[in-house]
Design brief:
7 helices; elongated; three-stranded mixed sheet
Length: 162
Amino acid sequence: MSEWNELLERFRRGPELLAVATTGASNPELDFVPAPDAWSARQIACHLADSEVVGSDRFRRTIAENNPTLMGYNEKLWAENLDYARSRISHVLEKFRLIRGDSYELLKSLPEDAFSRVCTHSERGAMTLLDLLRIYAEHAENHSRQIMSVREKYKEARAAAG
């Protein structure tokens, strides 16, 4: 299997990973913050969903435009000013699933050579569409593991408390 096919499959599974990572979590568990300056599972899920909005735009610009400039964003300000702590997890999961699914359908329809298209990220520099795909596939994987870790810390804190 080629690298782009493998990455596409990993990318496609992102919503499943997020759903599994959050399944069965109560609101106190979703809202548990394991350390100062850390995010709760709910906030991490919100970050993934909003990052997917940004990613959708980045994929489309890279496919449609010649070497577009992709701007970075301040994820901490998004978390604070978009009130991640109050978001309904069901809405967050659905937003992530729909946007990721839409991007997947677009990406899987492309010929392999399209993945060499270039963009310039304001913080990372020159990148290809394949680089973007890798980043977003890994993003969901990494944050799903992070959510599982936060949930485990919640259980440990509850057990220690009593």
